[in-house]
Amino acid sequence: MKRHRSTLPRNGTRRPTARRTIAASVVGALAVTTIGLSAPVAAYAADVPAPSAHYDMTHSGTSLIDVSGNGRNATLTNLTDASFVDAGGDDVLRFKADGYASLPKGLVTGTDNNFTVEYTVSTQTSANHFGWVIGDGVGPWNTTQLGNHIFLSPRSSQGGYTNQVLSAIRVKSGTDNGESRLPAGGGLNPGFTTLTMVGSGNTLTLYRDGAVISTLAHTRAMSSIIPSGDVLGYLGRSLYQGDPLLRADVSDVKFWDVALTAEEVSSSMPTAAEKTAATSALLRGDVLATMLGANSSLDGVSSNLILPSTVNGVALSWASSAPSIVSTAGVVSRSIIENTPVTLTATTSLGALTFDVIVLAPSVSADLDAISLATRTTENLPLATKGAINGAAITWTSSDDALVTETDAAYAAPAVGAADPYAGGGIVTRPAYGEGDREVTLTARATLNGQTAERTFGVTVAEKGRWAPDAGYAAAYFKSDGDEKIYQAATSGNDFFTFSPVNGGNAVITSTADTKGLRDPYILRSKDGDKYYMVATDLCISCGTGWGPAQSEGSLKIEVWESTDLVDWKRTNGENTGITINQPAAGMTWAPEAYWDDELQSYVVFFASRLYSDATHTNSDKLYARMFYVLTRDFKTYTYPPASWQDTGYARIDSTVTKIGDYYYRFTKNEEGGAAGPLEAGKDIFLERSKVLTAPTTQSSWTADPNSTWQLTDTRMTSLETGQAGEGPEIIKLNEGDPNNAGDGYVFLVDNYSAGGYRAFLTTGAAIASSQQSDRLSQRAAWNVRPVGGLPASPRHGAFVSVTQSVLTAMHEWSGVKAVASTTSLSASGSTLTAEVEAADGGDVVGTVTFSGGSWSKTVDLEDASASVTAPAGVGSVTAHYDGYADGLVKTSTSAAVSIALDITATGTTRCVAGKVTEVLTVTNRDDVAATIVIAGAYGSKTVTVAAGKSASATFTTRLASIAADTVSITAQSADGRSHASTVTVAAAGCN
């Protein structure tokens, strides 16, 4: 901490020769550092030797400045100006597991075992992180890569040291790891605490705010620890491979190459008043950042404030000057008619903090301004019924209720499960594929405190996409804790167990935002089947985040994309960042998945999270993982806050859902180390069912009513078969034509995360639906894990989804969807022509067909892939050309030419003339052009010319008293080149 004390030299005190002192300096004097930067030379108490380095968190660029005047600047890695804050004039470095500082050589020399490190810190995070370490060589426990060292962890998560200071010295010898730990002596004091470690001979002494809390007698030598290179050690980085970087606030660090006395330890450290002032200033900033909630500043408060009960380990008690305007729970009134000032006071052990707030009078127009609707939609619309800013009541009307529904004034919430936040409004009926988009105008009417306003929104409702039968499968996954990117694979055809990587085996999506890690991708096909959504966990363990902080201070976001081809992915929010869906009191947002809810006409997005008492995350009870959900219609806007979905008092994660018949079936991982009520054996998958997707679960029960909650139907489903603990369950219905599908087939998959990834079980929908306590699916003879093979290589927690042939081809070629081939066939019945168009993939065909013959042509819309037309007179030969459609998904094609026949009919009769039979043949030209007609039978041939619309007869004398039946041929030709050929039978006859 920056301190200004008198610096008169001490007289008459003898110091050991190992001590190096610096002449006292005038406060505020400047010294030139080794990198040419000017830094203030700190002043030190007269009875304390000057340190070999002093870091009061003054910084410049990548340098943490040594203000002692010795020029021993530390080097910052991944820490920037944003990592430092001003705490009442004191700089504080906020380590957020995002960087560290490398200490230069010379701070401690190792010529003897005498040294001192003074470290002033505040943290609420318990983890296997180092505050500081002297030594170098990062490596696994008990290996030669791990260098000899001495370290201090300000708040440990190690057994026996949980939430206490952990410090140790390590010098490896033979097979002995060589680590000796100081006994646990307690944790940090509230606010900033100064931890001072003194090495004197073979004794290590640890002080907390000047009082001894632990000592250790050891036989290690500092000379075996001090590295030979330019780096002495680190601030904020552990040498144990896999340990996270530090999460803590650090205000002051000093090093001495001598052992301070107890009196010197107390004299050197920042005073209690200085630490209290810095704690209070930092506390004020942290409280402000927490309390704002959705408000941008305290000068313009319009939504509820978050008033934490603890921050940085300091308890806060709140009072309000106007509780009816802002309550002590942070509830902000929306009934005021003018802007109103309110003073909020937080009483702490460090004194009172006051915050002046101006609560804005609500404006009904602000709620209308906050509405954002897509200008073109393929999904139901989120027509909010409550204003996002001031909570105005909003109702919607539609210019075409058959296209987009209005708010239902009579809507009533169901007895079980989530209520429709849109009260029946916004349900879209898309035009059929080929009918084209349609326009609708929606009007929002907002009412608040007697104010009313309206706003109109024009929306284009997109026609449905092209349907084609599914012909394969796609997968998405990440690979490991060290490779947190999204990869994809696809089957070679319609066989689920033929997966291979796509995109050359390279990552499909690499995060450059938020935590810069992507895990647990899940792909959901849209309700209409023409789009895919992908959600993923925002988490990067390989970036230095430990599993403890990942659950206690994890991301509140999910990462979301959409695609029509599983190749080109775009963020649904149009920004290079995730979407915050979780609440400030949550510890993490893990393994998000989504499923369509038929009743709510929305997607339900569910995920695992810890939930703390408040946004400070300081309580340590009830921190088991549980499942929450939010609703969305467009994967851009979500309901808030998340609703509790599964909270049984036991840890649960990784739910996945499918619907079979009237029931939703939910596979979930039991995250408890042991049994969780009726769930046997921790770390395995169990199965439940319910008729209501959003029904809450408060206990696991075999006899629960699935009409109002979720009924347990199976447990411990995989480990007895696989021999491994499993997570990340997935369930997928097999395509028709898949050789693995004997009918009603499903594949169930479980991620054996410690043994190579996914394993598969084949089952059926009927088998899943019939599982019950007395006849469990997993205990039937047919429940067997398949041999390894056919799935993506070593996938971690991912997703599997059916795809059409177009998408499958696009994935393998890693290009956009290409048009499929088509075949056009043409037939004629007289002058009526019919064209039939078929796509190579068996999918929908829409668009137009153009019939052409000579100079004539006509374009006709396809209906059910067929088009008909009547050709005019004079057209003899016709072709049909499929012209395609605006989306270009099916290639054009042309039929073979078809000749159009003349429309000629004929009848044959007989009569008796002089006792002999005479045949009479009558031909009729029903066409609109004259025809020359040849009539030929057993008794002769005649040619007649028949005008359009006329008839002509020809007689043939047989000279016989009786004749057998006679087949007469009729052939005709017109001047325009058309022809006709047929036969007519003259019945047998006789004359008496």
From TrEMBL:
GO terms for molecular function: hydrolase activity, acting on glycosyl bonds. InterPro entries: aBig_2 (IPR046780), ConA-like_dom_sf (IPR013320), GH43_arabinanases (IPR050727), Glyco_hydro_beta-prop_sf (IPR023296). Keywords: Glycosidase, Hydrolase. Residues 291-354, 374-463 form the Atrophied bacterial Ig domain. Gene3D superfamilies: 2.60.120.200, Glycosyl hydrolase domain, family 43. Coiled coil: none annotated. Pfam families: aBig_2, Laminin_G_3. It comes from the Bacteria. PANTHER family: ARABINAN ENDO-1,5-ALPHA-L-ARABINOSIDASE (PTHR43301), ARABINAN ENDO-1,5-ALPHA-L-ARABINOSIDASE A-RELATED (PTHR43301:SF3). This is Atrophied bacterial Ig domain-containing protein. It comes from Microbacterium trichothecenolyticum.
